[in-house]
What we know:
Chains A, B: It comes from Pisum sativum (Garden pea). Chains A, B: Residues 40-140 form the Aminotransferase class V domain. Chains A, B: InterPro entries: Aminotrans_V_dom, PyrdxlP-dep_Trfase, PyrdxlP-dep_Trfase_major. Chains A, B: This is Molybdenum cofactor sulfurase, variant 4. The structure is a homodimer of 149-residue chains. In chain A, 45% of the residues lie in helices and 0% in strands. Chain A has 149 residues and is mostly helical. Chain A has three domains: 1-52, no CATH class; 65-94, no CATH class; 110-144, no CATH class. Chain A starts with a helix and ends in a 9-residue tail after the last helix. The longest helix of chain A is centred in the middle third of the chain and has 20 residues, at 75-94. The first copy, chain A, is flat, with a radius of gyration of 22 Å. The model of chain A has no long low-confidence stretch (mean pLDDT 92). Chain A binds chain B through residues 34-36, 39, 41-43, 46-47, 49-50, 52, 55, 59, 62-69, 71-72, 74-77, 107-108, 112, and chain B through 34-36, 39, 41-43, 46-47, 49-50, 52, 55, 59, 62-69, 71-72, 74-77, 107-108, 112.
Amino acid sequence: MATAKEEFLKEFGEHYGYPNGPKTIDQIRATEFNRLQDLVYLDHAGATLYSELQMDSVFKDLTSNVYGNPHSQSDSSSATFEIVRDARQQVLDYCNASPKDYKCIFTSGATAALKMVGEAFPWSCNSNFMYTMENHNSVLGIREYPPQK
Amino acid sequence: MATAKEEFLKEFGEHYGYPNGPKTIDQIRATEFNRLQDLVYLDHAGATLYSELQMDSVFKDLTSNVYGNPHSQSDSSSATFEIVRDARQQVLDYCNASPKDYKCIFTSGATAALKMVGEAFPWSCNSNFMYTMENHNSVLGIREYPPQK
Lengths: 149, 149
Ligand SMILES: Cc1ncc(COP(=O)(O)O)c(C=O)c1O
Ligand SMILES: Cc1ncc(COP(=O)(O)O)c(C=O)c1O
């Protein structure tokens, strides 16, 4: 592994990691993803990795604020409602999506989101649902929703 | 507040908190729920509170192990799959429910769980769905699923 990396760096070293960033990729791995050790994690499409800095911040937030079900009427629920609303707005902003035309809905994952699309899409008898053979099951599942011709 | 508590304790002090537990309720509040300060949180049916000890343990787990999407094929995915499987088993054990007769399914919340019941229940034209006027919207939603007579 060590020699393979050396050879790789000899050829591509100039572009490796974030050459102009405040931390090199090796520093980021050592400080923010220490749990990886020598592991090379590639499944970012399935589930990506959070950094230790992110976890720290979530931990501090969740142990210093009192959150509750955003749909209840208590003070902690209003606080939670506001945080959820701001998070939706941040996602819309990031996507340059106007709240006039778009809503941000949090789901439990890709499968739940795709199911919701299948359920909510205004299917008509002229609708054609097209997908590739290689699509994930969660996409194929949408087949169930268009009216059968 | 302080006098009200004193009066309450004078009458019910013997049974207050967990009188035979390792920590009194005031100690638990001070060490495990420090974020509450003087807040009295009652919405445990909507969303209950986690202790700081629980958060500590989750934090340590998530920053020292590499987890991924439990449905992928990588090492971190297998590790995640095993943890999810064990958690399901723990829930079944806790409910004294045999895996022969029961499956444990994690959902994003009560509404998602009730929707799943509505979708999966083997409705027939003899089915009657009964509910109380006071039921939460998430229960009322099940009305959409029985075949209309
Ligand atoms: C390409 C692709 N789509 C969808 C999914 C399903 O994602 P989720 O588990 O968030 O429903 C996966 C999961 O691995 C995936 O790899
Ligand atoms: C009695 C009751 N049922 C169901 C729900 C919905 O729960 P969830 O937000 O987990 O879908 C709530 C939420 O406050 C509730 O109070």
